Amino acid sequence: MSDHESTYVPKTGIEKWLDSRLPIIRFGADYMALPTPRNLNYWYTFGGILMLCLVIQIVTGIVLAMHYVPNTEMAFASVERIMRDVNGGWLIRYVHANGASMFFIAVYLHMLRGLYYGSYKAPREIIWILGCVIFFLMIATAFLGYVLPWGQMSFWGAEVITNLIGAVPVVGEPLLIWLRGGPAIDNATLNRFFSLHYLLPFVIFGVVVLHLWALHTSGQNNPAGVLIPKERTAKDTLPFHPYFTVKDGFAIILFLILFALFVFYMPNALGHADNYIPANPLVTPAHIVPEWYMLPFYAILRAIPDKFGGVLAMFGAIGVLFVIPWLDTSRVRSMRYRPTMKVFFVIFVIVGLGLGWCGAQLPDAQVVPGMPSFMLLDGQLNSYLWLTRLLTAYYFAFFLIIMPWVGLKETPLPVPASVSEPVLDGGIPEKKG
């Protein structure tokens, strides 16, 4: 599919003039006509959903920036003014706040689909790596945005996370001072976070363009995980438009219904009540917790007793995603034909949900009589802590041990010779040899 030739023909003088200087219309037309595997299912619609989420976040963010005041004395009040006095301000703010959660729901499903179907394997390593860059930038942008309302959870979340940076040897302290703009979180910090939060979505958009460019070059993966040879392109593919634009459109409509359900009926369900209290440096909340989509990484951070070790584990949990193409040793892409790996993948999904649950729990220790001393924390057993450590161990083992080992030892099921074979031949792959 990377050998797809352009079929666009400029029709007007303006199109011909523009095409000879900046072939942007040709790029769009070629993308619409891109040969796409005919067996793509609805798990492949999250790319379009994510693009819509990004546009919504950028547009609503620009409007909110027109009214927001990045000052510690006025930030909280400016958010309330947006909600009460700006025409449609409540809607813009709720769309932006819930849009972040919808963005992460879609990106997690998108990444899990890529893991399950082996979309990171050659020749698509760059597509996967660029996707991981987007994910990392999303986390950074979300954290910066969480600080801006300047409620209790905003302030103390910033205090906790920025203090973690100070735990890095040698460069940690200077980096902490630079990020905060001083020795403590204040106006300079809020200004920096506001500037970076406004900038990073446009950086994300630029990386998305590279992501789509790499996809256009290497071609789309498919649920069967088989490469489509040039001689079978006509039989195994369909033009992206209208076949898959219609499918994407239907999925987007369903996603927008879910989005609207949160915006109009439970806009604060995914937020924290303490963030409706103005920031007070003298009053520490009972439980400092990030947004739900960061809870798994927050749990990993808390699982490590050493502060710097926790920081390494948290960033390592994201960093390991970048090297997955070289950790998976299996020659079969799709887990449809890898029964053993499929079981470990289901456990991995459950572990991810479990880490999110553990990250949301209060850090209070629980006394369990008769427990061995090595399982005690300050003389008490913290059950959530040890469950979190167990789940964290599996998270890293999945990538660093299970994925390479199973790829070498597993006997996969027969893989179809083409994407159309399971349908046209009754689902029975050709016998090899």
From TrEMBL:
Amino-acid positions noted as binding heme b b562 in the UniProt annotation, renumbered to this chain: H96, H197
GO CC annotations, alphabetized: respiratory chain complex III
Residues that, per the record, bind a ubiquinone: H216
Membrane topology: Multi-pass membrane protein
Sequence positions that bind heme b b566: H110, H211
Stretches assigned to the Cytochrome b/b6 N-terminal region profile domain: 14-224
Domain of life from the UniProt record: Bacteria
Record-annotated membrane-spanning stretches: 42-69, 90-111, 126-148, 160-178, 198-215, 249-266, 308-327, 343-363, 383-406
GO biological process, one term: respiratory electron transport chain
Molecular function via GO: metal ion binding; oxidoreductase activity; quinol-cytochrome-c reductase activity
Keyword Oxidoreductase appears in the UniProt entry: no
Cofactor(s) annotated in UniProt: heme b; heme
Assembly and interaction partners: The main subunits of complex b-c1 are: cytochrome b, cytochrome c1 and the Rieske protein.
Family, per entry: Belongs to the cytochrome b family.
Task performed by this protein: Component of the ubiquinol-cytochrome c reductase complex (complex III or cytochrome b-c1 complex), which is a respiratory chain that generates an electrochemical potential coupled to ATP synthesis.
Name the UniProt record assigns to this protein: Cytochrome b
